TrEMBL record:
This is Orphan protein. Keywords: Signal. Residues 1-33 form the signal peptide. It comes from the Bacteria.
Amino acid sequence: MSSYTASKSLYKSVFGAIALGLSVTSLSFNVQANGQITDQVNHLKDHLSEYSEEVSWLEEKYDGLVTRYEAKGTEAVDTQELINYWEEVNFHSAIETQYIPLYATIWQHIYGIKTGIENGDDAKKVRQHQRELTQTFWQALGAVKLAAHYQDKGVIDKIKTTDKAPTSAPEIITDIEKRLDKVVAKYAEQLTEVATTMVHDTYMERFEGIEGALIEQDASLVEALEKDFNVTLPQAIENGKSVDEVRSIVDTMKKKLDNAQSLLEKAEQNRKDVF
């Protein structure tokens, strides 16, 4: 299977994310569960063969573990290995820093396998999660190859370990959307408290800063987003909703934020035209 071919259908969405400069901020360094991100993420092209080998290794490991479960049952499997495999490879941080939605999907399927085995689910159901995980690994490798190409061309900034705060209202909206993607990723990792804290911090540190300007454009939109930040999303996380349900809430919020961004951009342009 060609990993690059597997990613072609993701070209537009992946490039859109990359073009926005999806770098790791100080926030993501603080909440990371698997240790430091090394400088290899700033030299993706030099590590592509390594990443390809790691994806093949991961495919083999997860397939072998599920095969063992099919043959011998729950007692024959240490489900902690599922997490250890993923956290062991450098490819882990490569996809985390370049395309966070796929990173979240990987964790979602890892825990799908883990929970299925621990609950003694039908092996066919567990195997389906494993197949989807493998497919996501190859899609993620395609995304990293694409990122490596644009990094080599200088389109993507190097990963920074400090958080440069956005200055304009539209930039703040973009930053909020990136943070919400990270909320889904951390929730998929089953870091519930981290995800909840990120929602709260995003509201306090980012959204509150643009509320005044946005109220002038659409007060009802501000009210709807306030409810999403303070009630809908945190309650879904705290009540243990599925990753897909949490992702759906975030997707709905991002549509509202896109609307907010358009309103703020128009307001900014109108101010420039006046002066």
